[in-house]
Amino acid sequence: VPIGANIPEPALNPRTAPIRDESTRTVAVFCLSDPPNVQREVADISSAIQFLAQYDFKTKLIFLGRGTAEAKELIASASRGTAAEIVNLGLQSPEDIAEILSASDAMLCVRGTLYPRRGSAIAGIACDLPIVGYGNGQRIFPIDEAGLMLAPYRDRHALSEALVKVLCDSELRSHLRTRSREAWRRYFSWDGIAKQLIQTLGSP
C-alpha cells in the first residue's frame, strides 16, 4: 500500500488551478537532503539547468521544501553563470506547495533513485507533474505508473537530456501529466489508498 501526498489533494484545493507563463519553463525542486548529499544533488541540478541554456526558452528553477533554505548559498554558488532564474522559497505551507507545484512544468527529483515511498515525488504526482529523476532500471510499481522520465543513477548527461525532452515537447508533457493524474487517482489519492488497504486486509 503506497503512501499519499503530504499536500492537499488537488480536487479539494481550488487554489491549485495552474497559471503558467508559456514563455518560461518552470522546474520545481521539492526538498533537498542534508550534507554531504546536498552538494551532489545541487551539482546534478546545476548541470541539468546549464544544459538547458542552448535551447530557445527561458528557464525558472524553484527550490522549496525541507533543506532548500539551508542550501541557499550552495545553490547560489552553483547557479552562477546560468541564464536561469533561480527562486528559493524554503519551507512553505502545504497549500502553497500544491499551488507552486501545479503551476510548474516539471519536477526535478535527484535525491537518489526514485522509489514508491519518495514523498516529494508523490507530491509532484498529486499535482499532475512530469517527474524527471534517477532510476535503476527496475520496476518500481506503482510510482512508475506516473509520468516519469528517468535516467541512470548519477548520469548527469542523461538526466539533462530527459529534462530537455519534457520541457521542449508539449505533447510529451501533456502525456506525462495525464499519467501522473491517473496514477494519483488509482494509487496515491486517499480514496485509492483506502481501496488498496481494504483489498490487502481482505486477502486471505
Number of strands: 6
Q: Which overall shape is indicated by the principal axes computed on the Cα atoms?
A: globular
Largest sheet: 6 strands, parallel
Helical segment tally? Answer: 7
List its salient traits.
single chain; 204 residues; alpha/beta; 6 strands; 19% strand
Secondary-structure blueprint:
Elements: E1 24-30, H1 37-51, E2 58-64, H2 72-79, E3 85-90, H3 94-102, E4 106-113, H4 119-126, E5 131-135, E6 148-152, H5 156-168, H6 170-188, H7 190-202
Parallel strand pairs: 1-2, 1-4, 2-3, 4-5, 5-6
Folded structure, characterized:
The chain is an alpha/beta fold. The chain has 7 helices and 6 strands, in the order βαβαβαβαββααα. The protein has helices at 37-51, 72-79, 94-102, 119-126, 156-168, 170-188, 190-202; strands spanning 24-30, 58-64, 85-90, 106-113, 131-135, 148-152. A 6-stranded parallel sheet has the order 3-2-1-4-5-6, with helices on both faces. Helix 6 (170-188) crosses helix 7 (190-202). The radius of gyration is 16 Å and the shape is globular. The two termini are 16 Å apart.
